[in-house]
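BUG: 3D viewer hangs when loading the predicted structure for this chain

Environment: internal workstation, default settings.
Expected: structure renders.
Actual: progress bar stalls at 90%.

Input used:
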Amino acid sequence: MKKLLATLLAIALISTTFTACGNTNNATDNTDTPVVEEKLEGSLISKDKKTFSIFLNFNNMPFDSNWPIWQEVGKRTNIYLEGIIPKSSSDEKQAFTNMLNSGDLADIIGFVDPAALEELGRDGGLIPLNDLIDKYAPNIKRVLDENPKVKRYATSLDGNIYQIPKAIKTKVTEMWWIRQDWLDKLNLKAPTNVDELYNVLTAFKNDDPNGNGKKDEIPLFDRAGHKMLDEYLCLWDTSTNFYVRDGKVIFEPLEKNFKIGVTNMAKWYKEGLIDPEIFTRGPKSRDVLLGGNLGGMTHDWQSASSYNVTLAKDIPGFKMQGIAPIADQNGVVKERTESSPVVGWGISSSCKDPVTVIKFMDYFFTEEGANLMNWGIEGDTYTVNEKGEKVFTDKVLNSGKSVISYLRSIGCQYRIGMDHDPLFETASATDSAREVMQMYTDHSEWYLENMPPYVDGKLTLKYLPENEKEYNKLMSNIEPYVDECFQKWILGISDFEKDYPSFIQNLKDRGIDRAIEINQEAYDIYLGNK
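Structure tokens produced before the viewer hung:
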């Protein structure tokens, strides 16, 4: 009997080979039998050339297999990708919907919304990657093990990993920037609190710092109007969104600071301190307003300092200077925007060779693969100096574009799962930007501890499947309402004080209390308290 049982067990083990990629319950490899693989030279992942389809669109740039970096990746790994999104397509969400409706999934899928990828995984469109990572992706596994924040971001609440994120390790993202040359001309100091900021912006508006004899200055502007609501309201320690205080999730429009913030923003807008086209000007506002010597202050990335170089000839003395976050009405200094892992890519259930794909994904967490995606090609876009530091070449620095724009134009810094190199940020920055970035880095107290993930100012926690649809339905009725009311109040179309009581009641009627409960549960799970 023992011999018979042993024989049956052996047969069962032999028959349990890994299944086709379409089986989403087992990531194609169900046996613990060691895999004996042929040793390949260099960074080759496959002895023969293999091509996989990919759905990915980042910043209105559909994946382009002709990008030099991806051609180089192909040469080194023998793995090539072909994008399925037309080059003329700029609507990522519509393209994603079209692909899902067609039922014809690309081998590799990336998308701007991690929740959508996780839902696709739970529905069987993406395969769980846990076992594949354990067996074939040692570099991804190392990063997940070393960085709990990245692992938490990558792991769905069902315990599966459906997408490999971009592993960003730094906190610093956007900073406050002000026209130092305007401050100097008006004999002003950089503001440190919200009251001083009001006085400085008022002087920018009324005292002709650009020297053209007109009151055409726009003291406070932003190129990201879609998230400006929070970037300016946070000056008064509030927002139009959820926030965490002392471990509790709150919806800030219900709190007293919201009334202070909206009242002051409406006042500032009426007095011309805020860009009159803040809701409509769009992403080109920084180019337009700084290039026209009109903009005074903004909240933006380190690239804001690059205008000190590009506008030096046209605007003598031009200087954007980074400053510390502005203290709110209570004297508290906080920076609400911070880096977090970024959504990456997963393997679809249509893929016929997920083992090769996960090895390919692992390549971008090796030193060679990470260098290619962060820096480009050594000797072409960067060199290594005698100190062992990577520096960008003149080809990149003098391209006529910002460093990040040039790199993305050749396929670098794309939205894929990769090991992000924080030194890339400093190497692409001006000297003044590096100083400001270091200042923000040195002040960890400016950042909220256990900050939940936000994308463009919106909370992006992971929700239990039974809560997710309910939450999305609630917020589809709440978010547009809040945004509409906020715009009316700032533009002076409607009276905030008169509207506020009915605004609160409407939020209650639309289910805001339940939305808070769902977010609290999701935040507790995020912290590992549930």
